[in-house]
Write a structure and sequence with these properties.
Layout: H1 32-35, H2 43-63, H3 72-86, H4 93-104, H5 109-126, H6 130-137, H7 141-149, H8 157-166, H9 173-200, E1 202-205, E2 208-211, H10 212-218, H11 227-239, H12 242-263, H13 270-275, H14 280-309, E3 314-315, H15 331-345, H16 347-358, E4 362-363, E5 375-377, E6 385-387, H17 394-413, H18 425-444, H19 449-466, H20 468-487, H21 492-507, E7 511-512, H22 534-552, H23 557-565, H24 572-577, H25 586-610
Parallel strand pairs: 3-7, 4-6
Antiparallel strand pairs: 1-2, 5-6
Helix pairs in contact: 2-3, 2-5, 4-5, 6-8, 7-8, 9-12, 12-20, 14-20, 14-25, 15-16, 15-17, 15-18, 17-18, 18-22, 19-25, 20-21, 22-25
Length: about 625
């Protein structure tokens, strides 16, 4: 189907700098024994659980009936004690260990049962300190203002502000405990069931059975004509899980909307905005800009691609097809590129990268039972973990840069005190896509015109997947929420149709999206995460601005490090203001989209300029 340039010749157009340090022997699998426990029978697990329970109960005993909000001195002591709990890794180590084991093997029943037991025990213990933030939220407004101005409480100023803002949505302590108690049954267990079905399913392909997550990764490595065949088998398998996914969505979303009503949230994404330390108007401005200007650009791109390929429509499974011989990039080559870029931006970032490799904090390759996709996981006081399902593609290189961008962000944020060393989801997705952009820019700058056509085309498809596709998911999730809330439930066919409609909205008529393609909602976990998807788009647009500024002046690396080290010490708007980006203005999103528009225009120009030389 696809026309091809002849320029890439399957070579990655990149040469690392001579100053790149040599990498000693490194590991490609998680070393959970070295970093956590020997196995499920390690006596330290029970010791840590008992320590956690004792810690929670001790805090409650000291502060529950102490009138700790009476004056700034007592409040300071209680907040200091609370922060020490937040910074104690012992409390979360057992649960983290078994969660990571389940990511490596979703059929690990020992880990599954142990995790359920631990969560039950520690939920009861953790409930002992629920009273603390609830009591803070009850402080009268006049007294809140006094505490916020008190120099002695300066360190806790932002924490207190967030507690006070969220307090109007607090329930009683017993109600909060009930919600925590029912959460696994109403949400977590449903999600785990679908994840397990998807992760353990197999697809027959060319004489062997591929785990479904591996099949989803494999499809992008195939020849164009093979992709619809494998995709057809994948979507047929996923469609078979439709009745289960139907009940899962109805249960999860009905539960969420019930809780939203109790907490008096006005919109389905109000809780997300508060949790992400963001604001609803900013989210709505983003969604509006991308759903209009952004969708027009993605439809334009696919119309251009169809014209170039001389076809009326592109098959849905072939929408990411390159228009050239995309470089095959094995993991060692991907490491070389990423390490070089990370070191060039800041030596500290390269050192973080290398240290994680040497200590076994990356699990690289797909295997049976392993959770699909990729993620970075971090918690206070614990090693940062990155899970990949690496294949020899440019996309996998970008995924490595993305997840290690998250890792660097987490490592730099850990310079903050425990209450502030986390990060908003929104700033997290900015950090990850920033490093994706920096890696791409480094490769693109060394390429010839033919290779630039392939790289730029593939970057645009990746950007569309990160921006327009995610806002299509946001719009789909919003429609599902509102429909289930209004009509009581949705069937599998209705969920499929909803997804089909929103896929078509950003791809346009140049891509043939079938009704069955709508079944892909079943395996997209982010649709269960409460509008999480918008953060990818927001992050990509903001990181484009940051990458462009770094390209124009390398001294902007100082602002980049300011951003990465701020952690969760301020809200999203203020963090971006500190690096010169005003996210309260709608023009900021439109201006960021102009870079995307320029990429499409540049691709069109390169194709036109080199068309006689293209095969």
């Amino acid at each position: 189907m696809a026309k091809k340039t002849t320029a890439t010749k399957n070579k990655l157009p990149y040469r690392s700098s001579d100053s790149l340090p040599l990498l000693p022997n490194y590991k490609t699998s998680w070393d959970l024994f070295g970093l956590y426990y020997k196995d499920e029978n390690d006596i330290k697990i029970e010791e840590d659980i008992k320590t956690a329970i004792k810690t929670y109960k001790g805090f409650a005993r000291r502060w529950r009936n102490s009138n700790f909000t009476s004056n700034a001195g007592v409040l300071l002591s209680s907040l200091t004690d609370y922060e020490q709990i937040s910074g104690n890794p012992t409390l979360s180590r057992p649960g983290r260990y078994f969660s990571l084991r389940l990511a490596l093997n979703v059929t690990d029943t020992v880990a599954d049962k142990a995790l359920a037991t631990i969560r039950k025990r520690l939920r009861v213990a953790g409930d002992e300190i629920l009273f603390f933030t609830l009591e803070l939220g009850k402080i009268p407004k006049a007294k809140q203002d006094v505490f916020l101005k008190d120099p002695a409480l300066k360190h806790y100023n932002y924490f207190l502000k967030q507690v006070f803002i969220g307090a109007k949505h607090d329930l009683t302590e017993i109600e909060e405990k009930i919600i925590r108690l029912k959460s696994p049954q109403s949400s977590t267990l449903w999600q785990q069931m679908t994840e397990k079905l998807v992760s353990t399913a197999e697809i027959a392909w060319k004489g062997k059975n591929l785990p479904l997550p591996e099949a989803l990764e494999t499809i992008e490595t195939l020849k164009s004509n093979d992709k619809p065949i494998l995709w057809g088998r994948i979507i047929d398998k996923i469609d078979n899980f439709g009745i289960i996914a139907e009940h899962e969505f109805n249960a999860i979303i009905s539960d969420v909307r019930m809780e939203d009503d109790l907490r008096k949230y006005k919109k389905p994404y109000s809780a997300t905005a508060l949790d992400y330390q963001h604001d609803e108007k900013s989210i709505e401005a983003l969604v509006e800009a991308v759903s209009t200007e952004g969708f027009a650009l993605s439809r334009k791109f696919y119309a251009l691609k169809a014209k170039y390929l001389n076809v009326k429509q592109i098959n849905y499974a072939q929408k990411y097809d390159t228009i050239g011989d995309a470089p095959k990039i094995d993991f060692s080559e991907a490491l070389n590129v990423c390490r070089d870029v990370f070191y060039q931006v800041n030596t500290i970032y390269g050192q973080i990268f290398d240290d994680m490799l040497i200590k076994g904090q990356l699990d690289v390759f797909p295997k049976g039972g392993k959770q699909g996709g990729a993620f970075m996981s971090s918690q206070t006081g614990h090693p940062i973990q990155v899970l990949l399902n690496h294949s020899d593609t440019m996309k996998a290189l970008e995924t490595l840069a993305h997840e290690m961008g998250h890792a660097v962000h987490s490592a730099r944020s850990s310079t903050q005190s425990p209450l502030y060393e986390g990060h908003s989801i929104v700033t997290a997705e900015t950090a990850s896509t920033l490093f994706e952009n920096l890696v791409f820019n480094a490769i693109f700058s060394t390429a010839d015109d033919f290779t630039k056509i392939v790289l730029l085309h593939d970057k645009i498809t990746g950007d569309i997947a990160t921006m327009q596709r995610q806002i299509a998911f946001f719009n789909c999730e919003l429609e599902i929420h509102n429909t289930i809330h209004k009509e009581g439930a949705m069937t599998h066919d209705e969920l499929k149709n909803c997804m089909h409609h929103h896929l078509t909205s950003y791809l346009g008529p140049a891509v043939n999206v079938t009704a069955k393609d709508g079944a892909s909602y079943v395996y997209i976990p982010h649709l269960r995460y409460g509008f999480y998807v918008y953060s990818y788009t927001f992050g990509n647009l903001m990181s484009t601005i940051m990458a462009n500024r770094y390209k124009e002046n390398n001294f902007y690396r100082e602002k980049i490090d300011v951003f990465l080290t701020l952690g969760e010490s301020d809200n999203v708007v203020n963090i971006f203001k500190k690096i010169g980006i005003d996210t309260t203005k709608a023009d900021t999103f439109s201006n960021a989209l102009k870079n995307h528009a320029n990429d499409i225009s540049t691709l069109e120009m390169l194709i036109s300029k080199n068309k006689p030389k293209l095969v």
